[in-house]
Amino acid sequence: MRVNRDILRDELIALHARTPALGAFCALPDPLCEQALVPYVSPAAALMQADPGGTTAAFERLRDALVAATPDVRWRETYKDTDIGEDFVSKFACYQLIGPAEAPFNAPDMRSFVVWTPPGLHYPWHHHPAEEIYVVLAGEAEFAVHGAPSRTLRPGDHVLHASMQPHAMTTRDSPVMAYVAWRGDLTTPPVFTLPEMVSL
Ligand SMILES: [Fe+2]
Q1: Ligand 1 centre from 33 Cα, in Å?
Q2: Is residue 191 part of a domain?
Q3: Using 50, 70 and 90 to split pLDDT, how confident is the model at 184?
Q4: Cα(67) to centroid of ligand 1, in Å?
Q5: CA 39 vs CA 70, 72, 186: distances in Å
C-alpha cells in the first residue's frame, strides 16, 4: 500500500505537469499530502479491476496504480439514490483522488477523481456547478457537451465542461478510464439534466 501510494502521488503530479490543459485548469498543492479516509469498495470497482481498458504507454503506470489502490480508497456511488437504476450504479466506477476529504490526497480548493465505465454504457446528460475537465487515460468514449459536436476521446485527449453545462458520455466497444478534476463549487453534486434542457 505504501509503495503504491507513493507511485500514485508521483504519477498524479506527472500527469498534471505534462498535460497542459490540466495544468492550466488547476494547480496541485505542493507538497501533495496524504490524508486519512475510511475505505469503501463498491461493486463497480471489481469491473474496473477486471478490465481497466488498455492504454497508451504514457499512462500505463498511472492506470496500474489506480487499479492497485482499489482496496485503500473510498469508492463513490454518486447516483445510487436516483432514478437511473441499479444497472447503471453497478457499472459506474469512481473514486476521489484529491480533495478536502475522503480522498487519499488533500487539497482545499480542487477535487479530482478516476472514473471508469464498461463498454456499451451510456452516462446520460448531467450537470453541476463545478467547472470540470476530463482527461482520458485508457480506452475511449464519445463525449457529448451541450452546444458542441460530440467527440471520441482517446488517451491524452481532454474535454472541458463549463459550470452547469450539460454533458454525457457513451462507451462503445471499449471501456474508458478518465481522470476528472473539479474547481469552483466543490460540494454540490451532479444531477441529471431534464430532457427539455438539452433538446433546444
Ligand atoms: Fe461532470
Answers
A1: 25
A2: no
A3: very high
A4: 21
A5: 9, 5, 21
Cβ within 8 Å of residue 90, ≥6 positions away: 43, 44
83 occurs within a structural domain: yes
Block residue for cell numbers 507538497: 31
Is residue 200 assigned to a domain? no
Residue 35, in any domain of the structure: yes
Angle separating helix axes 2-18 and 60-68, nearest 10 degrees: 140
What grid cell was written down for 114?
A: 478516476
Q: Ligand 1 centre and the CA of 52: distance in Å?
A: 20
pTM above 0.90, yes or no: yes
Q: Which residue bears the cell 457513451?
A: 170
User: What does the block give as the cell for 50?
Assistant: 477486471
* CATH number, domain containing residue 123: 2.60.120.10
Domain count, the chain: 1
Residue 1, pLDDT score: 63
What residues does the ion ligand 1 have nearby, CB within 5 Å? 132
Range of the domain at 22: 2-184
Find the 162 Cα to ligand 1 centroid distance in Å: 9
For 78-139, list the strands marked E by DSSP: 93-99, 105-106, 111-117, 122-127, 131-139
Determine the distance separating the centroid of ligand 1 and the alpha carbon of 125, expressed in angstroms: 9
CA 127–ligand 1 middle distance (angstroms): 6
